[in-house]
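call fold target=Surface antigen
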Amino acid sequence: MSCKHYKNSPQKYYKIISFATFVGLLYACSTTKKVPDGEYLLTKNTFEFEDRKESIDEELKDYVQQKPNKKQLLFIPLTLGFYNMANPKYDTLLNEYMTYPDEMRNQKLRDSLFLKYNMKSSVGKTLFLDRLLHSWGTPPVILDQTRSEKSTESIEKRLIYRGFWDADVHVKHSIDSASKKAAVNYFVRHNDPTYIKDYYYNITDPTVKGLYWQKLDKSLIRSGQRLDQTVLEKEVTRITDLMRENGYYRFNSSNEEVYFVADSLKSKKQVPLTLEIHKDSADHPYKVATIGNIDVAIVNEANDFPKHTIKDSLRRIRFHKMDNNYKTSSLWRAVIVDSKKVYDQKNLDLTKRNFIAMNNFSILKARDSLRRGGGTSPNDSIVDVLYLLKPLPKYELKVGTDINYSQLLNLGVSPSVDLTTRNVFKGAENLSTSISGTFGSIRSTKNIDKKDLAYEISAQASLNFPRLLLPFDYYKLLPKRYTPTSSILLGASVQNNIGLGRVNFNTGLNYQANVNDQVSHRLTLFNTQISLTKNKDAYYSYFANDEIIRDNTFKNFFAYSKGVQAIANIEDQFNSGQVSIDYVSKQIITDPNYQQTLDQKGLDLLTAFKGTIVNKDRQTQDIIISSMIYNFVYSEIGKKDYPNAFYFNGKVELAGNILSIFNQKRDAGGVVASPQRTIFGIPYAQFVKFDIDTRKYFKFNGNQTLVLRQFIGVGVPYGNSKDMPVIKSYFNGGSNDIRAWVAFGGLGPSDSQVDERVRTYMTNNLKLTTNIEYRVPFNEMYEGAVFTDIGNTWSIRKPGEDNSYGDEFKFNKFLGQMGIGSGFGLRVNVAYITLRVDLAYKIYDPNKPEGDRWRFKNFQPFKPTLNIAFGYPF
């Protein structure tokens, strides 16, 4: 290739050069660059199973004492590359530097270490890049053959633990002296496992024996099973939980009361197994414990109880208060445990959780103990419970400024003032009031390549009750252990997001109940929003692209009208103000003769014009939305028992049915919108809407995570609405959606070929989004990710129906109408905040013409879609 040829075709080769540069940065230094002579970089551990594979074999890798450097992005040891890129001159110094606390790591410390390691010429250097690479990187793992031998012992012990008593493990090292690399091969022979021949149980206490017998069908142990110690451990846990649920206080607290005995004298392959449950060596009987005294004290200091408190009681619970600031009934609702009932530790834990959830108290002490009898001897069947609560301050004021990224704002700043007033009506009710503002930038409606200032100023008030606001006693229907709460919301906001601004008012009544740590229900009995559009007449001033399309359409129509006697003067009437823009627009879209005179270019312009009319009617519409919402959440996220967590969030919203009873008066409608019934002159919406958000998390290779997310949203307007309200419709793009497109960034709806200047701000009533993200931690602070986002929005109209413009959902076409974006990102974890930066690229754009939808030939690595946000996208 000549130099001349390259200069004439720079875009043809820069992609290859960019990739080569990236790879070169990682591998310019060999992975063995910092491996000392005579030693070897451990590159992999392999397992060869000489007789068969077993389901437990995957866990054997965890018992290998030496593991190769972790590979990120599935195949690249990225952190080793970072470490090798750091100057080896400073490795020893930086290893010591990183042992110091964060607050001591400064230039003074670095200079002292330079002097210690005879590097006087380096005094004053920050070593910023080397420190960054060193902190991100991990040193090479050097083969230690003695640790390999110890690993075989650990693997053998694990196999024995899992029931393979005759297992045999040996190791072989594959060393490549030329490349200074080594691999370790572990050869595993399981041989025949040991089975449970017969299963017996020896339980001397008849009541405990009876409880165990009742739940014997739940037992994890059966004759003929492999003798697996992990299964025995789970059975011990099951039995312990069962007994504690049935009143045996601190059953097996020493972990010595429940155990198994295996008789291997006659055979090591068929072994009788016996379950033993004994309170002690003397086989004293167990006693079912009951709850005795339940004391709840509201004090300022722990020593205020009991001498500075006044005693009160309600339904077998004793309350001790220094004043009457809190109603006894409000405290009683939080107490799940009940006097004279059989002890259950879960009820004690739930009571503690309820007091914390009230956001009125800090817990000074939560104690349960056996009641003392005569002298110092305890009564081993009565458990007394005590909670000491300290009231939190009456008022709590928070002033702050957040940096955020929403589905609309690209990047915003949000100053806020929040005031919490506790115990408003002496029933632990909290009033939360806030005034906040959000200011940022959004894609301009006049020029989609530019940004405009957007803002929202809002005032919100929420009155929260630690009970359900119902006119009847609901405790038999909804137990206290579900921690039911209610809240009344009232708010108002003024916003300027997309061109025209809005004034919004909202109010609602919400009920919530938590069944357990995974399941919660939320019912919004009524949620009423009034959304009023500002500056309706200025629509075309804000949406300048729509105005251009309108002017071109009007020009074509006026030229056509001169030959039609009935409308020959319509241009003069429009110019003189005798007829409005809406009147002319309606004439255009309802005149079939005009449409027959258009060529393909004219028809495309007319389709775009119809899109502008739909936008205008919807963007300028005032609307009342009064709905009932039910939300069900199942979440395993953050629970230690669910490493591969699952999340489900389902929501159903039904709007407008109650309002439809009160009024039949209709407005005049819009250009394409039909007349609608109104309340106080404002149309109300009728629709049903379903949202489903599911996520699955897979943990593997240490802390690496693969996340799959599927979102399905459907809104069905009916009755008084032919379209979903804009604020309840779906759109594409943004940092938590399809990241290759910004919010309202031109993706969708469907594969519509409507002019992008119009299509950009169209919303729709069906949305499908699939997200796949692979997360790789570099260290505790930094985490990388690669992702792919797929999805789009559609309408559920029939082809050719009013207001349709090629956006209808069709089962035989929707897969090919999905937008696809991919990219990579960095997460920075500081305290409890995660800063996220994602760079995304369009892979498949369904709104481009056929043949130009795959974007590989237009790929520009230095022009990604930048997403800056806080928190994980899902």
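return ok
The mean pLDDT is 85. The CA atoms of residues 446 and 544 lie 5 Å apart.
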